[in-house]
Amino acid sequence: MNLTKQILIALILGVIVGIGLTFAPDNFSSPIDTYFLTPVGEIFLNLIMMIVVPVVFVSIVLGTAGLGDPSKLGSIGAKTISFYLVTTAVALFIGLGLAFLLQPGQEGVFDVESADYQAEEAPPIMETFVNIIPENPVAAMANADMLQIIAFALFIGVAMAFLGEKVSGIHRLFEQANDIIIWLVNIVMMTAPYGAFALIASAIANAGLDAIGSMAMYMITVILGLIVHGAVTYSTAIWTLGKANPLKFYKGFIPAMSVAFSTASSSGTLPVSMKTAQENLGVKKSISSFVQPLGATINMDGTAIMQAVATVFIAQVYAISLDFTDILMVVLTATLASIGTAGVPGVGLIMLAMVLNQIGLPVEGIALIVGVDRILDMLRTALNITGDASAAYIISESERRKEEKSANTTG
Ligand code: ASP
User: Fold this and answer.
1) CB 282 near ligand 1, within 6 Å
2) Among 158, 190, 335, 343, which residue's CB has the most CB atoms within a 10 Å radius?
3) Residue 213 confidence (pLDDT)
4) pLDDT at position 238
5) 104: DSSP letter
6) Res 411: pLDDT
7) Is the dihedral of CA 137, 138, 143, 146 positive or negative?
């Protein structure tokens, strides 16, 4: 049986066990979660997080050096960032539209009196931009600061492209490091079904069926938003810009989506999503190595959809009406918030505080959604990495067409 099937079966079993545990007495379910599900899930998460920093560094250095002509980097960079910004804006409009239409905050009774949430300090956006260039690349790696690692790797890659033959030894070293990483990714992935099982079972058992029931309308709105964005926005982009059948794209990319779903971490899934895009979708290595790590760090359309729905939901629960300027403010700050969201579990919710603060909504409202957020996090992460892969696919195809055209004219 192939790995994707194993992961999908593990997820189904995990859902069944998770639901079973919500019915079991606490003194039975709690030790199972603490001594079995949580540690198994965390070991799996640690295993994949262990390879993320080397993957990002090595693959971006190789990808940039492999582009050959460093000026290409500028045009690919501009295409990538435009795609990411436009799709995030579309995602926000879908989220807002559905939330206004379905009114998830008007359904049921929400206990706002006892809602309490201590907002964590969100990093100031300007600081994040200025700090993209690391003062200390070793510290950047130690802290797994993805944007800084990407910036440093770009510098090294461009230098290698310029120096060419002179640094062929280092080039070879990076290629061999890459072989080791790919080998490790394959080994770690063999444990994915166990990790997936433990993570989903624990997420459901911890949320509890009561919370899921009372938040059903909110969850449905977010999930619908994710489905619409995947089925309409990305499919249209893949069809029109990538000139490919979106169904084929999804069929090829499903293994990575299932890992993103289990881990709720775009960064963690990166080694798998790059491998899947390159092997199953035929995305050029040099494009995938640049576009996908950048996307896993700054492009979070699923997170943007959650933030849009959550903002409207909280406004509705607290009976605060949002005017046109508020909506514009949500689009602006949620775009920044989703860029600033790190690709690890739960950060989207922390960044939501920034959006709420900006338009004067009560941050305590986050307490209402925190219980079911992990399940939604799994789903939105699967969409987050699909956006990155769509960009990589479309850009890789357009480069390929350009190369074919110039080969035809010169040939
Ligand atoms: N878990 C998400 C990701 O890694 C980020 C978030 O929305 O919390 O893509």
Assistant:
1) no
2) 343
3) 80
4) 97
5) G
6) 63
7) positive
Q: Which residue among 88, 344, 374, 379 has the greatest number of ligand 1 atoms within 8 angstroms of its CB, and so is best to mutate?
A: 344
| Gap from CA of 410 to ligand 1 centroid (Å) | 46
Q: Which residue's CA is minimally distant from atom 3 of ligand 1? A: 343
pLDDT digits (tens, 9 = 90+) for 258-316: 999 988 999 889 999 999 999 999 999 989 988 999 999 889 999 999 999 999 999 99
CA angle 383, 120, 382 (to 5 degrees): 10
- Quote the tokens at residue 201: 């079972």
Give me the pLDDT at residue 380, please: 96
Q: Whose CA is nearest to atom 7 of ligand 1?
A: 348
pLDDT reported for residue 231:
97
C-alpha count within 13 angstroms, C-beta hemisphere, residue 350 = 14
Listed in sequence order, the residues at least 6 apart from 84 whose beta carbon sits closer than 8 Å to its beta carbon are 294, 295, 298, 299, 387, 391
Q: Is 381 in the pocket of ligand 1 (CB under 6 A)?
A: yes
Ligand 1 pocket check for 64: Cβ under 6 Å? no
Residue pair 146/267 in contact (Cβ under 8 Å)? The answer is: yes
Q: What is the DSSP string of 127-187?
A: HHHHTTS-S-HHHHHHTT-HHHHHHHHHHHHHHHHHHGGGGHHHHHHHHHHHHHHHHHHHH
- By C-alpha distance, which of 294, 300, 80, 273 is closest to 189? 273
Distance (angstroms) between ligand 1 centre and the Cα of 302 equals: 8
Given a contact cutoff of 8 angstroms between Cβ atoms, the answer to whether 387 and 304 are in contact is no
Low-confidence ranges of the chain (pLDDT < 50): none
Domains, in order of start, for the chain: 3-410 (1.10.3860.10)
From the CB of 343, is ligand 1 less than 6 Å away?
yes
Could you tell me the pTM of the whole model? Answer: 0.87
Ligand 1 pocket check for 377: Cβ under 6 Å = yes
